[in-house]
User: What shape does this take?
Amino acid sequence: MTVALLTLRLYAPWVHSLKEKRMEVKSLLTRIQNQFNVSAIEAEEQDTHQVIVLAVAALAAGTAQADSILAHIQDFAAAHTEAEITAAETEFL
Assistant: This one.
C-alpha cells in the first residue's frame, strides 16, 4: 500500500480578501474530496490573499496507481478553478 501526497500551490490574482479566498478554497477542496475520495486541506499561506496551498493525501495499491490518481487530481484542480497552478509537488510515503 502506498500513501501519496500532492501539494499544489495556486495563484489567484482576483482574490482581494480572505473571504473570497475561503470561498474558492472550500469549493475546490469539496469538489476534489467528492470526486476522488481523498483527504484534502489548505496547508499553508492561510493569511495570504492570493496564494492558495492545498495538500491532498491518497491511498493506493502501488506507486503507479498513486501517481495516476495524483495526476488526475492535478488536472481536475486546473480545470475547476481560474487560479493558476504555480507549483505541484508529489511525495510517496
